[in-house]
Each structure stands twice: as structure tokens, then as C-alpha cells.
Amino acid sequence: MQFLVHSKTIAELEYDSETCLLRVLYKDGRVSSVPDVAPSLVMKIVARVPVEKSPYLMQTAI
Questions:
Q1: Is residue 3 over pLDDT 80?
Q2: What top-level branch of life does the organism fall under (predicted)?
């Protein structure tokens, strides 16, 4: 699943529900992957919870 994100730094999220891998595409072109992301966290992000305020993503992806 791919989701556009309205964020200062992140442009797009891609989530593989089979492997629970979240791929983060930044607006500057960088890409990073975050393993073992719970589907509930992805749903919160998609529901427009600001990504920068997620402690898990702050520590792991950014």
C-alpha cells in the first residue's frame, strides 16, 4: 500500500502488510526502511497523525 503524506519532511509511505515493512520516501529523495511496524501505527499515520510526532518513527526512520 502506498500513501501520500502531508508532512514537512516525508513525501510518501509504502507499507508491506505481509512483512510489516514501512518504506519512508523523504521529500529530498532519501529513502529508509523501518522493519516490524504494526498496522495500527500505519493507520494512525494515514489518518493524518503528524509523522514527526511519532516517537517510533523519530527514533527509527528519521
A1: no
A2: Bacteria
